[in-house]
Amino acid sequence: MSRELAKVADELGREKGLNREGLKQALTEAIIAAATKRIGKYGEPKVNIDLDKGDIEIFIPKEVVEEVDSKWHDIHIDDAGTFKENPQLGDIIYIPVTLEELGRQAALVAKQKLMEKLREVEKNTIYDDFQNKIGEIVTGTVLKTERDNIVVSIGKTEALLPKREKIPGDYYNRGDYIRAILLEIRVFRGWPQLILSRTHPDFLKKLFEVEIPEVFEGIIEVKDCAREPGDRAKVSVYTLNSNIDPVGACIGLKGVRINSISNELRGEKIDVIEWSPDAVKYVCNAISPSQVLLTNIFEDEETIEVVVPDDQLSLAIGKRGQNVRLAAKLTGWRLDVLKESEYNVIRKERMQEQEQEFKEFYELYNLENIEILDDAMITKLIEAGIDDVEKLSTSSVDEITVALGVDDTQAIEIINEAIDYLTTKLEEMDEDDEEAEDVEE
User: CA 89 to CA 270: how far, in whole Å?
Assistant: First the structure.
């Protein structure tokens, strides 16, 4: 029975790809658990295992006594001499036993515990083997399809390619080879589950490393990637080597390099563009193949306005907005694409708005609104750089006395006049805003 158990353990270990040391430890713990269940917690048994020979030696602790109360716990002093020279009463001696002597129940417990330990070792092996492979490309063979999810054999374990991580058009038969990125390791019902992906942008990045030597060697860097899996993608590349064209190197002679990647992705069209630290230039590259006439950047809104020729608007936006959508994902900017004629109208409206705002600002902050000032005083203040009411209200007494040649009392009076004026005007504006809100409500 011991040899049979050792053989079963060895076969399972080989099947699961477990190392010999881990297998030996699992079998030892299983037999100790089985023996302990049989003899009780009288002392922990000792187990020696030789997997190569298939030998299992079990030793249980027994106390040397004159009268045996339990055959599992005691050994008569006359019999103890067989196992220890000159034994004394009270000595604890380890006596060899077999699984057969421990009984059929103990053997079943040993097998059960062995399976539990092997699963635990297998679980730890999966974590150890694949934890550092997350984000890397793995290759396996298709085992089966379950509810549109593909089960893949990778080495001695299995992985799952969920439906949402499949490229549209991904169809595989049993035994087909498949490449994907190891996305994550999830715990499902206490067991690690390897999750694969063929739609993640990092899968495309890793394919660039595999197919393009300059990327693998670090001469060319893949900066960003945006995909609509199976349809179209944009990839930005960059190099510090001025003698290398990063875009041309990635595309390859007659497109041979980029075509091999596209074929792996079910014909996904891949636009390779040059990355730039200049956000505007980067966006112009990303919106290709459309020509860009001019751009306006609105950093607060994280938006870049892109103006293109009227006849290239549809080219810039792309089919169902795909081109501009991918460009926005790639660059991280919200892109507002306008045709030239539309922008000219908007530009005129903005200029009119700016003129109106400037006029309102001039009317509100004009120094002429401060009655205490005459034309000569206003001229002196402007020459001193105090050219509006707000600057006047925040000026120091010394600045006013120097600019106008007045004493401290007059300077304080002028500053207070400016403060009172601004306070009154701002209160009036607040009241107007409140009335407007009431009307809207």
Answer: 85
Whole-model pTM: value is 0.65
* CATH (one of 2.30.30.100, 2.60.40.10, 2.40.50.140, 3.40.50.1010) for 134-197: 2.40.50.140
Give me Rg for the CA atoms of the chain.
41
304 within 8 A of 296, measured Cβ to Cβ: yes
Structure tokens at 26: 């699992």
**Maximum alpha-carbon separation in the chain:** 129
Distance CA 342, CA 355 (A): 20
**How far apart, in whole angstroms, are the C-alpha atoms of residue 323 and residue 283?**
12
Q: What is the DSSP letter of 366?
A: -
In one letter, which amino acid is 437?
A: E
pLDDT at 9: 66
10-residue stretch averages of pLDDT, the chain, 441 residues long:
62 64 75 77 78 77 85 84 85 82 71 72 76 91 89 88 91 91 85 91 95 94 94 95 93 93 93 94 92 90 92 91 94 92 86 75 80 86 86 88 88 88 80 61 58
Q: Is 128 helix (H, G, I), strand (E, B) or coil?
A: helix
Distance CA 325, CA 374 (A): 59
Cβ atoms 272, 303 nearer than 8 A: no
Fold category of 278-354 in CATH: GMP Synthetase; Chain A, domain 3 (3.30.300)
Tokens matching residue 430: 């607040």
Q: Per CATH, is 366-440 categorized as 1.10.150.20?
A: yes
Lookup: tokens for 196: 């694969």
Structure tokens at 401: 């006395």
Question: Which residues touch 12 (CB under 8 Å, ≥6 apart)?
Answer: 18, 115, 118
Query: What is the three-state SS of 113-124?
Result: HHHHHHHHHHHH
Tokens of 219: 């001469």
Sheet with 269-274: list strands edge to edge.
221-228, 232-238, 269-274
